[in-house]
Design goal:
The complex is a heterodimer.
Chain A: E1 22-25, E2 31-36, E3 42-49, H1 61-68, H2 78-87, E4 91-96, E5 101-108, H3 112-124, H4 130-147, H5 151-164, H6 184-194, E6 200-206, H7 210-220, E7 244-248, E8 254-263, H8 271-283, H9 288-296, E9 300-309, E10 314-323, H10 327-343, H11 348-365, H12 369-380, H13 387-398, H14 401-411, E11 418-423
Parallel strand pairs in A: 2-6, 7-11
Antiparallel strand pairs in A: 1-2, 3-5, 3-6, 4-5, 8-10, 8-11, 9-10
Chain B: E1 26-29, E2 35-40, E3 46-53, H1 67-74, H2 86-91, E4 95-100, E5 105-112, H3 116-128, H4 134-153, H5 160-168, H6 183-187, H7 191-201, E6 207-213, H8 217-227, E7 251-257, E8 263-269, H9 278-289, H10 295-303, E9 307-314, E10 322-329, H11 335-351, H12 356-373, H13 377-390, H14 395-404, H15 408-418, E11 424-431
Parallel strand pairs in B: 2-6, 7-11
Antiparallel strand pairs in B: 1-2, 3-5, 3-6, 4-5, 8-10, 8-11, 9-10
Helix pairs in contact in B: 9-15, 11-15
Classes of the chains: A alpha+beta, B alpha+beta.
């Protein structure tokens, strides 16, 4: 007889296959890390340069320089690059973060030889045409205007400014006027300083065989695109002494909230255990914050807590958008949930749930070529090796409620947190 | 981690498959009418369980819109024998999400393969019957209202789709968005209406179960029989939706909103998803705006600098849908100039045939996108499920061929048919100065 009240037997996740990235060097010393996996003949290659906003002398330079890379090179105009990429059904993705600039390409394996020829020219010999730059700036201005209408953008900007201080590269403080100060020469200078073989590493995922590695060496392994290494500037974090901030955005009916504090780096002994604590707090659908503030009270469509780990600093942030009338109650409940973690032990049942959930996430993080490449990048950026994940698994399997409460007492004191609310008061 | 809901699909939402890498699947139907589809993928340690119901916002009463989507939220508020949905799933290492469209409601979860049975247990119990708890209804009403604000009311350009749909459809229920026409419809939802909606639409004979991953057909059928087999067939009535009469004159609406830039939207009625011309129509949008080498981008954004953003895409609806062109004119360019420039490109599609090379390029791109879409067991499950609800899961294996067969003549013909002024609804979205 079928008993629908009882859950079928749950089998513990005992084995996780931590497939590791392999390493090769191109002839000029560029490291290539690659994951050969997947069922389809698809390849994704990331050319990664230490060329993030950290290295720019004025706002927008790193991102506009990066975006301009596909806008014309010595042998191809912007239109010809677009034509070739589209013809082969490939995608170029250009992104920057605080530390790195990425030139990524996704392609069917069979078209990679043709695509890499184009990629070589635009990565090594980009020419930054004036006309395309004007078009790009106009496009980005409009995007900026749109983004800065959103309470979540205003809130995140202010939050990073409060945490790091306006002058720090981890603070987002770009202004509309910054676009008018952009000069082609500055972008080219940035490109020549940072986009070169001495400042590059490559991560490749998908069907990566000897032929693909050979192609990479052919196009990017030469000594023709090296330059002198540029020194990394130093910045100091200047956190605002005021803990509570409001950004006025009149007319809105919802407010965005960020509540956060500095966090431990990936190398810290508490890092893994704290990741479990943050998951219980607000890191999955069944988390304390979601259960209380969405599922019990209905104040929001979603709320979560995340740890952002950057090279120089890490922070924990709780992020949500709520109706204006729910701002105060939401802030109060966030503090209540911290206090609960500090005073009550997480039940065996809840701990078991979150452990299983995180083990499932582990399986997902190591399933498929792109996930495998992502898991590699998450350690490689911090000069860690795969023992990081062995350690994470060990902590996950052994953590106790008492340890979590001790950590909460140390790391989740409501009075340590910075709060930014953006919306209409 | 948010449940994705109420979103409109953008162009080409249903990737098909590449003819050289067919997705093999097996299919059967249980006695109660539930269709079961299995695709084996031995490369993943996970399985996906996807349950897709043939109910969307098109099935709503005009005075009770947003119901299908509200319902999606309620489906996580406990079922007849299981008070909590998420917790036991998480205990088994699982994760889940769901979305509602105009046409269907799709629930999907992933699990380590040795815990697959928990997925069957959870999904079958909520197909059998919900808990119908008052508390869940009260809270989810509020959550959906906050979602309504977050997506539509507190978002620049958030009301574009509702306005455009209302302009283009006068009779068909596609005139309202999945989140609902107005907040009051959600506020007023009663428990009796919730129950009626459930028994009218949530039934084995109105759903598809798709399982992908390292599983075999017999194992899945056995589990499906065990857990879904006992659910009664509910004799779901075939839908009877009023069809939109042909539009006979151009419609135009102008609104003023607190947004940074003026924007123009032009929506043309087009075929349904099963019409043989659908593929040609999709390729019209690709020629116009898929990629930086597409016509509208190259000519109007890059060369003439008339726009900073310009897109052409299909709504992707199952019944006759919309072909939409939307553009943000550059500073100093009037909406009138912008509109004329768009019409010029559309006229070219009507007058001249797309050259062979350009056609080949667009086809290559379609084919590559299809391969990219097949890299993941979960996407494959969702594509099988949504195509089966549309008509037949095997469409995912014939679509590449259907795109490959499109000719320049058909593209011209479909352009001439669609891009007529009297078939167009124009929304002028003006920035408050």
């Amino acid at each position: 007889m079928l008993n629908r009240k009882i859950q079928p037997i749950v089998n513990p996740i005992e084995h996780i296959d931590l497939v590791k990235a392999e390493k090769r060097m191109l002839s000029n010393g560029i490291p290539v890390h690659f994951v050969n996996a997947g069922t389809q003949n698809v390849v994704k290659i990331d050319f990664i340069f230490e060329a993030g906003t950290w290295f720019q002398k004025s706002n927008l330079v790193a991102s506009l320089c990066n975006s301009m890379i596909e806008e014309g090179s010595e042998n191809y105009t912007a239109a010809e690059i677009a034509e070739k990429v589209d013809f082969y059904g490939a995608y170029i993705q250009l992104t920057v973060d605080q530390n790195q600039g990425f030139v990524s390409v996704v392609s069917l394996g069979k078209y990679l030889p043709a695509i890499l020829g184009v990629m070589e020219d635009l990565i090594k010999r980009s020419v930054f045409p004036e006309y395309e730059l004007e078009v790009l700036i106009d496009k980005n201005k409009q995007k900026w205007l749109l983004e800065n209408e959103k309470v979540r953008t205003l809130c995140q900007k202010k939050f990073t400014q409060v945490m790091f201080g306006d002058a720090h590269p981890y603070a987002i403080n770009n202004k509309l006027e910054d676009f008018d100060l952009i000069k082609r020469g500055d972008l080219m200078q940035f490109y020549h300083a940072f986009y070169h073989s001495g400042n590059c590493h490559i991560i490749a995922a998908g069907m990566i065989d000897e032929q693909v590695l050979g192609l990479l060496d052919k196009h990017f392994g030469g000594s023709d695109w090296g330059h002198n290494q540029v020194a990394k500037p130093e910045y100091e974090i200047c956190t605002d002494p005021v803990k509570m901030h409001h950004v006025e955005k009149s007319g809105g009916i919802q407010s965005a909230i960020r509540v956060g504090k500095f966090w431990v780096p990936k190398t810290h002994r508490d890092y893994h255990a704290l990741s479990i604590l943050v998951t219980i707090f607000g890191g999955y659908f069944g988390s304390r914050l979601m259960t209380n503030i969405r599922e019990e009270k209905g104040y929001t469509y979603g709320i979560g807590s995340f740890v952002l780990t950057l090279k120089q600093a890490s922070y924990l942030v709780i992020s949500t958008e709520v109706g204006n009338e729910y701002v105060e109650p939401t802030l109060a409940e966030i503090a209540v949930e911290m206090k609960r973690l500090q005073t009550e032990l997480v039940s065996e049942n809840e701990l078991e749930t979150v452990k299983s959930y995180l083990l499932g996430e582990f399986l997902r993080d190591f399933d498929g070529p792109f996930a495998l490449a992502g898991s590699f990048k998450a350690i490689n950026d911090f000069d860690l090796d795969y023992s990081f994940y062995d350690e994470a698994l060990k902590v996950l399997r052994n953590i106790t409620s008492a340890e979590l409460r001790t950590l909460a007492l140390q790391y989740l004191n409501p009075e340590d947190f910075y709060t930014v609310v953006a919306g209409s008061k | 981690m948010l449940r994705v809901t109420g979103s409109e699909f953008r162009s080409n939402p249903q990737p098909a498959t590449h003819n050289s890498t067919m997705i093999h699947f097996e299919r059967t139907k249980l006695a109660n009418g539930l269709t079961v589809i299995v695709h084996q993928d031995k490369t993943t340690p996970m399985v996906a369980v996807d349950v897709c119901y043939n109910v969307g916002s098109r099935d709503e009463h005009p005075d009770r819109t947003g119901f299908a989507h509200l319902f999606e939220h309620l489906m996580f508020g406990g079922s007849k024998h299981i008070p909590l949905y998420d917790e036991p799933l998480q205990k088994a290492g699982g994760d889940n999400n769901a979305f509602t469209s105009n046409d269907l409601t799709n629930y999907y979860l992933t699990l380590p393969k040795n815990n697959i049975e928990t997925g069957f247990w959870l999904e079958s119990d909520r197909m059998l019957e919900l808990a119908f708890s008052k508390k869940s209804l009260d809270v989810q009403r509020n959550v959906v209202i906050e979602e309504f604000k977050q997506r539509q009311l507190n978002q620049p350009y958030g009301d574009v789709w509702p306005l455009l749909r209302q302009l283009a459809y006068k009779v068909h229920p596609y005139q309202w968005p999945t989140i609902g026409r107005e907040i009051s419809h959600i506020e007023k939802a009663t428990m009796q209406q919730v129950k009626d909606f459930f028994f009218a639409h949530y039934a084995p004979d109105n759903a598809v179960l798709v399982v992908t991953g390292d599983v075999d057909f017999d194992q899945v059928v056995k589990l499906a029989d065990r857990w879904f087999g006992p659910i009664p067939n509910r004799n779901v009535k075939p839908r009877n939706i009023p069809q939109e009469p042909e539009q006979t004159e151009i419609r135009e609406q102008t609104v003023i909103r607190g947004v940074p830039n003026d924007t123009i939207y032009m929506a043309y009625h087009m075929s349904d998803r099963l019409d043989p011309m659908y593929y040609a129509t999709d390729m019209v949008s690709d020629v116009l705006s898929n990629g930086n080498s597409s016509r509208m981008y190259l000519n109007l954004v890059q060369k003439e600098k008339l726009f900073t953003e310009l897109d052409a895409y299909l709504s992707g609806d199952y019944e006759p849908g919309l072909f939409v062109v939307s553009g943000k004119p550059s500073d100093g360019v009037s909406l009138e100039t912008a509109r004329k420039a768009i019409e010029r490109e559309l006229d070219r599609m009507k007058q001249d045939r797309v050259p062979e090379y350009e056609l080949e390029k667009v086809k290559n791109k379609v084919e590559a996108n299809i391969v990219y879409g097949e890299m993941n067991y979960l996407t494959k499950a969702m594509n099988l499920a949504t195509n089966e609800i549309l008509d037949d899961a095997s469409l995912i294996n014939s679509q590449v061929e259907s795109y490959r067969e499109v000719t320049s003549e058909q593209i011209q013909e479909v352009s001439q048919h669609i891009f007529r002024p009297e078939n167009c609804s124009v929304l002028n979205y003006i920035a408050k100065k």
